[in-house]
Amino acid sequence: MSKKGVKKRRVAIPAGISAKVLFLSDRTCCVCRQSGKPVQIHHIDENPSNNAIENLAVLCFECHNLTMLIGGFAKKLDAEQIILYRADWARIVSFQRMVEEKRESEFVQADDQIDYVTSTAEALRENKAYELLAMHYNTYGGIDLRDKYIEKAIRSGTSAESELFLRSLQGRADLVPNEKVSEIISRQQRDKSYLSLGRTYAKINDWPNAVKHYCLGIAESIDGGNQFSAAYYLKELCDAGAVAKLFELELESRSKIGDLWWQVRCLEELGWNSELDALLVAKRSEIEASNDLLLLPKLYLALGERKRAITALKTQAASADRFSSADRKRPRGGSDKKRRKS
Ligand SMILES: [Zn+2]
């Protein structure tokens, strides 16, 4: 029988279901995850009358377009990929909610909080929701139980994304096989899902790539006029300690090549004062021999020789005007030398 002329009938999604889908996805596209961007509910099997919750995913208009584009022989974003993105995103949303709930529950009475924690865990156990149980115990401090449920979840067969997520709760992303990590990265790269890539790289401790992809996603948010998303991910990146991580990496590579000045600058930015003093003292003869105007006062301060530090700072101050005065208008007919003397 020819399919021609058979049009799939659109049936409006019942309000209760669409509310639940939006809740699970935090009103955010599960692929690009740019918070605050307008979204719609997508039917994964492309049958607009199939409103089963398993068939629905929240997508922004741009990512929805990818479900219709053909790249090579396949769709740019097919059903299987959307299901993976949706599961991965739902996991992140649930985890962030648990952390938020814990913060809120601290304001209620201790007894009520204990009751809340145990009854939530019971309900999750009944549903054999191992992944959520692991997150639950991670949030409420039951480390042994968290590890027990991480093992159970992984043994019961999880996606590569789930395994990486769970292992990174333990700080053990290194336990995830390399081919699984590459699988995640190549999927996210293909779909230009920069913010997801940023998070993936952060989990595997690849900070230069984490910062690069967070920034690409943040730039995309700004270009799209979406300041909320830009601010949200910028905050997340800073809270994850990305700034210090980059200074630490730079410090490591400068130490390897013995570049003293940039080691000093990294240590200053990191606020690692005792390491800084120890380095300067160890390099004392090198610094004194070089007569380095910037390093000398730092060295004397590290040595506790205040008078010599002040003399060195004065020399530094006296030299400061050399370049900045060079753009001053020269007096007519007079050379720079003459002007300085007057
Ligand atoms: Zn999107």
Bound molecules: zinc ion
Main sheet overview = 2 strands, antiparallel
Q: Which outline best applies?
A: elongated
- The helix tally amounts to 19
SSE run: HEEHEEHHHHHHHHHHHHHHHHH
Mean pLDDT across all residues, rounded? Answer: 88
User: Cα-atom Rg, whole angstroms?
Assistant: 29 Å
Organism: Koribacter versatilis (strain Ellin345)
Region (Disordered): 315-342
Keywords: Endonuclease, Hydrolase, Nuclease
Biased composition (Basic and acidic residues): 324-336
Provide key terms for this protein.
binds zinc ion, disordered C terminus, endonuclease, single chain, 342 residues, 19 helices, mainly alpha, 3 domains, disordered N terminus, elongated
Descriptive report:
- With 342 residues, the chain is mostly helical.
- The protein folds into three domains: 15-81, no CATH class; 87-239, no CATH class; 244-319.
- It is 65% helix and 4% strand.
- Strand 3 (70-71) and strand 4 form a beta hairpin.
- The chain starts with 14 loop residues before the first helix and ends with a helix.
- Zinc ion binds next to strand 2 and helix 2.
- The site of zinc ion has 7 residues, from strand 2 and helix 2.
- Residues 17-65 form the HNH nuclease domain.
- Residues 315-342 are annotated as: Disordered.
- Residues 324-336 have a biased composition (Basic and acidic residues).
- Keywords: Endonuclease, Hydrolase, Nuclease.
